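TICKET #2291
ISSUE: user wants both folds in one file
ATTACHMENT 1:
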Amino acid sequence: MSGTILVLGATGLVGGGVAARLAGAGEKVRAATRRPEAAQAKGGTGLEWVAFDLERPDTFARALDGVDRVFLIARPGDEHSDRWSIPLIDAMKAHGVRRVCNLTAMGTQMRPDFALRKIELHLEASGLDFTHLRPNWFMQMLASGSVQAQIRAQGFFALPAADAKISYIDAADISDVAARVLSTAGHAGRAYTLTGPQALAHDAIARILSDASGREIRYVPIDEDAARAALGRAGFPPEWVERLVVFYRLIRAGYCEPVTPDVETVLGRPAAPLAAFAEAHADAWRAA
């Protein structure tokens, strides 16, 4: 394909992977960030960095100039992210964008009041070729942030997940899928639910992390009040705390347990298992 691909979130976990994969495959990639000079200084072979901010529509025209495909990510953690992404979708159409790969979330289609679903629906009605990617929770959350810090310091992680199972997915697989969707035909109008190859309860996950790191790691189930207190101590703002509490209710209700073949459908190979991710990131859980 010819034309430029605009990648939102190009300094982030998934967006950065998408930009790197597309550039490595010879695509013309414009990488969006609020601070292009800082991103350029850190490297990024084959990328054209552009100043872009979802909250500043005056940055849209320059970013979209000559673009025919877009990797769209809503503003993370924003319960009203549709108010920023919907004007961007309209600008995409006005600038001649043809195809959009939209990163959303597993189960979004079942929540009409959810900002990500409002974005999906607006994109579907726009007339643009679209593909929704609906991933489950990332494996990376086990190897970063408050979960990793607790494991390293105390040898356990505490979550309000009870004994529910979850099919965590490696963010690298999401980047691979997005890059394939943006660079090959046959994905228009599709919605892919992206999961890992198996659903695991967190006690089984703890055993996998233990085997990889060489130390005993335990999972401790907690209730919502204990989770609120722990998240507050970790520095999460109150609105994020309640958002996470709601997400864990969905986990306990079994909404994050399904396993789909969609990664293999797009890539022709299975999704990476948690054990492989754990081996590759074993240092993350070793004692400080």
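ATTACHMENT 2:
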Amino acid sequence: MRLAAVLLAAFLTGGAAASPLAYGPWTGAPDAHAVTVSWASAPASPARVEYGPLAPGWPLDLFPLAQTYTPSAAADREIVHLRLDGLLPDTWYVYQVVFPDGSRSPVGSFRTAPPPGATVVFAVVADTQWQWEGTNRVRLVAEALDRGPFLYHFILHGGDLVETPIPSHWEFFFRSMAPVLRWAPLLPVLGNHERDSITYYQHFTFPPGGGRLDKRWWTLRWGDVVVVGLDTNARRPQDYVDQVDWIRESLSGPEPHKFVIFHHPVFSSDAIYHPGVEGLQTLWHPVFVELGVDIVFTGHAHNYERIERDGVTYLVVGGGGATLRPLGPERLEGSRVAYDDHLFYLWVETGPKGIAVEVVGVARQVEEEIVPSATILDAFTLPRD
């Protein structure tokens, strides 16, 4: 390998082995002029984030700007969020976290929000959870998702990021997903396995939202796209009423491409483990139809299914690494495509002509084995009105 390639590899993967960086970095809460860079530090440590817009000489002279972070007190571990603001809109940026000992995180990238009319590309995954032995299935999906920098505008996660919201499981999630989380902001919603734990809220930053800590539900406006993240784990009836109001307000704007994401499926042919939720069919489905939602992403059922009801496309996308579950012997009305033996993720692209979706198979379960198998499980388009 040539010297230049060796230096570049070292630059992209970070610095010294002994570093306060426990895991990360990742980004969140993006908009046209700001993003939040996050990481876990063990122990708590001062740091600075060096960053700058992508330049023709990439990867040289990446970081003309920097912001510093100083912990308020010593701690064994902390989750850090540092807001970078004053950014240029519709621009790719690169960044790196640097510690006092000279160690550096891997280089990451993010994009600020584009104007209306721009092409938007994002990925969707759900139900990564945890496993106790065998192939790291979450890592398989993350490595397939990783198509390099300057591609995804953001990544959506449909909940059940972890099996249990304890430190070791969060570390497993972030280390396993590291190949792709460095390249784009992550926007999750609560799954039942997060248990509404404070650790979920501590790890993530979001667009404007509501509910607990203003993070239980949220809305991202991004060029011609609006994405509404909701919570189907709430126990108070008032939370569901409040979310209907949030849906109506969020989806009544000018954006032509409307997406919603939450954990529990409205409709599902998984009759054994996780069938659709009748309450959501009654409460939310009519609102989605009325407001012209294009696609609803959900998880919880560990399989893939595309169901079309009353002009709304529902995608069950629980193939991010959790144990796969069989679909029932009968398919629901409107079920178009279904798989229960693949890990997968979604590629979504919007533009002036409409929405294009590819469901990318990563690996197939063959009896007790997970066998890598790159394939397109489903592909469809929704023309723009």
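RESOLUTION: both attachments delivered.
EXTRA DETAIL ON ATTACHMENT 2: The helical segments are 3-13, 137-145, 167-181, 198-203, 237-250, 278-283, 285-291.
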